[in-house]
């Protein structure tokens, strides 16, 4: 069974001094919080809900994706 540890997680600053955390490989797997830690903790809850939905529909979880980081010059 997949867990959040199997995926790349992106956490970045968002508008209004908040943070957004998301899993690029899983559509809809995103959360926000007032701190990066809060966003990450909420992402755990979102992942658990999505995992439950996938299990109910008997769907396999997608493979992780590789991210490329580009420097803004």
UniProtKB/TrEMBL annotation:
<protein>
    <recommendedName>
        <fullName>HicB-like antitoxin of toxin-antitoxin system domain-containing protein</fullName>
    </recommendedName>
</protein>
<feature type="domain" description="HicB-like antitoxin of toxin-antitoxin system">
    <location>
        <begin position="7"/>
        <end position="65"/>
    </location>
</feature>
<dbReference type="InterPro" id="IPR031807">
    <property type="entry name" value="HicB-like"/>
</dbReference>
<dbReference type="InterPro" id="IPR051404">
    <property type="entry name" value="TA_system_antitoxin"/>
</dbReference>
<dbReference type="Pfam" id="PF15919">
    <property type="entry name" value="HicB_lk_antitox"/>
</dbReference>
<dbReference type="InterPro" id="IPR035069">
    <property type="entry name" value="TTHA1013/TTHA0281-like"/>
</dbReference>
């Amino acid at each position: 069974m997949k867990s959040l540890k199997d995926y790349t997680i992106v956490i970045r600053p968002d508008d209004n001094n908040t943070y957004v955390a998301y899993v690029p490989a899983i559509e809809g797997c995103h959360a926000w919080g007032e701190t990066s830690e809060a966003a990450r903790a909420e992402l755990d809850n979102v992942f658990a809900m999505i995992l439950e939905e996938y299990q109910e529909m008997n769907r396999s979880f997608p493979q992780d994706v590789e991210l490329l980081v580009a420097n803004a010059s």
